[in-house]
Design the sequence.
């Protein structure tokens, strides 16, 4: 028997790591992976609450989050490819102008 | 007891992978540690009895999405990350603020909700009941999601298309 709070703390740690990576990383792809890490932390708390209250809709919600994450990854990586084609760099510090 | 041991082992793998993602400078190493995080999260889902979510986690997240990431990293030939110096104010205020905030959240979670426990291996999140819920109660969101995925596919194709082709079509038009 694992207390519910352990799962929530683990999800919180993953979310905090995602936020930290989003803020300190300078590579566009790694920043994007940090966002996926945050989504995973939230998914874990969803599943933990679903198991706690015997509510299957929490797991359906996780399914929807995964679908949205997949769509987001496809579009985001296409944007990254377009940015790289124009700027020749993945460093976010050099991608500081909307206009080329 | 075994449940707690498995939870702790795979939770430790999770946290180690997440920290490794932050420490590594090459994006391919970060991607591989993220895959480790996702697979160990799938084990945590199995512990919670969510077998469908665990399978989908491995197939979609660790499979499809991370393959996409690794593919883009190799396609763009992403090298080592350049380090830039952050502002001093962010370090002076940010690190103590993060410590205080995270210990506050952990204290609230551990002290206020510690009484209730999640049962081990109930295995009630089977695909049958999930799909009954998904195709009856959540049918409209499901269909809207399929439209979203279709739009995302078209958007990805348009965005990743070569710019020369775009200019040509613009000139033709």
Sequence:
């Amino acid at each position: 028997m694992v207390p519910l709070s352990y799962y929530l703390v683990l999800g919180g740690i993953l979310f905090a790591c995602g936020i930290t990576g989003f803020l300190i990383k300078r590579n566009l792809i790694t920043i994007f992976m940090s966002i996926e890490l945050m989504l995973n932390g939230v998914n874990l708390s969803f599943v933990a609450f679903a198991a706690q209250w015997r509510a299957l809709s929490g797991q359906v919600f996780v399914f929807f989050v995964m679908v949205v994450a997949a769509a987001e990854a496809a579009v985001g990586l296409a944007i990254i490819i377009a940015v790289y084609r124009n700027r020749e760099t993945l460093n976010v510090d050099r991608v500081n102008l909307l206009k080329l | 007891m075994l449940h707690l041991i498995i939870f702790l082992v795979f939770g430790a793998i999770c946290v180690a992978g997440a920290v490794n993602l932050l420490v590594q400078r090459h994006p391919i190493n970060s991607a591989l540690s993220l895959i480790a995080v996702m697979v160990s999260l799938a084990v945590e889902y199995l512990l919670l009895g969510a077998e469908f979510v665990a399978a989908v986690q491995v197939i979609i997240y660790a499979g499809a999405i991370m393959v996409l990431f690794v593919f883009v990293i190799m396609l763009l030939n992403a090298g080592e990350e350049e380090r830039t110096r952050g502002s001093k104010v962010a370090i002076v205020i940010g690190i103590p603020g993060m410590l205080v905030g995270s210990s506050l959240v952990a204290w609230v979670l551990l002290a206020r909700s510690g009484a209730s426990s999640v049962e081990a291996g109930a295995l009630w999140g089977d695909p049958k009941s999930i799909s009954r819920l998904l195709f009856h109660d959540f049918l409209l969101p499901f269909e809207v999601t399929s439209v979203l995925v279709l739009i995302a596919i078209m958007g990805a194709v348009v965005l990743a298309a070569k710019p020369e082709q775009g200019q040509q079509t613009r000139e033709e038009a």
Q: What stands out?
A: Helices of chain B lie at 2-23, 27-47, 51-76, 88-112, 127-136, 139-160, 163-172. The CA atoms of residues 133 and 139 of chain B lie 8 Å apart. Chain B touches chain A through 80 residues (CB under 8 Å). Chain B has a mean pLDDT of 85.
